[in-house]
Design brief:
Blueprint: H1 2-6, H2 9-20, E1 24-25, H3 26-30, H4 37-49, E2 53-58, E3 61-66, H5 69-78, H6 80-83, E4 108-114, H7 118-126, H8 128-134, E5 140-142, E6 150-154, E7 160-170, E8 174-179, E9 191-200, E10 203-211, H9 220-237
Antiparallel strand pairs: 1-3, 2-3, 4-10, 5-6, 6-7, 7-8, 8-9, 9-10
Length: about 240
C-alpha cells in the first residue's frame, strides 16, 4: 500500500508540501498542484488509505497531516537491516482519530499502534517511574500525571529537561498537558499537547497532538518520534530504546 501511494509524482508532491508545512487544508494543497480539486482529493484518499496522511476535521474545514511513521517503519524493515546490525524499531502506527479540542487546530500530529492493554498504556503515560523507564533522554521523572500536578523530566546530569502540568484527564482515553521545554532555556515559550487513547482489541491506538508550537521549535517532531518508538518498544518487549537516534 505504501509503495503504491508513493508511486505517483503528484502524491509525492503532496507529501513534500505537508513536510514543509503540516496541517494544510484541501484548498491550500490544491493551489500547489496543476489539477482539479477532485483530482487532489483522490490522491489524498490514496495517501490516507496508506496511513501516510492523517485527516482532521476542525469546524467546516478538514486539515491534513503528514504521518511519517509508516515511512520510518518501511526504512527500518527494508533499508536499515542492510546499513546497521540493529535497526531502530519504530511503530506501525495507523489510526485515524478525529476529536475536537478546545485548543483548535494542532500544529503537529503523530499516531501509533501498540500491542498492549489500555490499562498498560495509561499507566505508561501517567506513572513517573514508567515514564523514566522509556524516556529516551531522561532517567528520572518526578511526579505522576494528575490534574493540576507538575511532572518534571530530569536528565542523567541532573538538569531538568521538560516540565509538564496536567490540565485535563478523561480516564484511560485522554490526557492534556502543558509542554515547557526547559532544555531550550528558561524563557522558551510553553505549548500544549494531548494524548488520545483508543482500545482496539489486543492493541491500542495512541494519537499525539501538539499545539501552539513557537517558531524555532519545529524539532519537537523528531523528539515525539523517538519517544513513540521507545514507548512502543517498552510496552511490547519490556525494553526501552534509550538514546535512540
Amino acid at each position: 500500500m505504501i509503495f503504491k501511494a508513493l508511486n505517483d509524482p503528484a502524491r509525492r508532491a503532496l507529501l513534500d508540501s505537508l513536510r514543509r508545512k503540516d496541517g494544510q487544508s484541501l484548498s491550500e494543497l490544491e493551489e500547489q498542484l496543476d489539477m482539479s480539486r477532485f483530482g487532489v482529493m483522490k490522491h489524498l484518499k490514496v495517501l490516507e488509505d496508506a496511513h501516510l496522511v492523517i485527516p482532521r476535521k476542525q469546524g467546516r474545514f478538514k486539515y491534513h497531516y503528514l504521518n511519517a511513521l509508516p515511512l520510518q517503519e518501511m526504512l527500518d524493515r527494508w533499508v536499515a537491516p542492510f546499513l546497521r546490525p540493529q535497526a531502530q524499531m519504530m511503530s506501525d502506527l495507523k489510526t485515524r482519530l478525529e476529536r475536537e479540542t478546545k485548543m483548535g487546530k494542532p500544529d503537529f500530529m503523530m499516531q501509533t499502534f501498540i500491542r498492549c492493554s489500555q490499562d498498560a498504556l495509561w499507566d505508561a503515560l501517567t506513572k513517573a517511574d514508567q515514564m523514566a523507564a522509556y524516556h529516551f533522554m531522561c532517567n528520572e521523572v518526578r511526579g505522576d500525571a494528575h490534574p493540576d500536578t507538575v511532572t518534571e523530566f530530569v536528565k542523567p546530569d541532573g538538569d531538568p529537561m521538560l516540565r509538564q502540568i496536567t490540565t485535563e484527564m478523561d480516564p484511560k482515553t485522554r490526557i492534556a498537558m502543558t509542554f515547557e521545554p526547559l532544555f531550550m532555556g528558561p524563557k522558551a515559550p510553553a505549548s500544549h499537547m494531548v494524548y488520545l487513547i483508543e482500545e482496539q482489541g489486543e492493541t491500542c491506538k495512541l494519537t499525539i497532538e501538539h499545539y501552539d508550537i513557537a517558531p524555532g521549535q519545529e524539532g519537537f517532531a523528531e523528539g515525539w518520534a523517538r519517544l513513540a518508538a521507545s514507548l512502543k518498544s517498552y510496552l511490547e518487549t519490556g525494553k526501552a530504546m534509550k538514546g535512540a537516534a
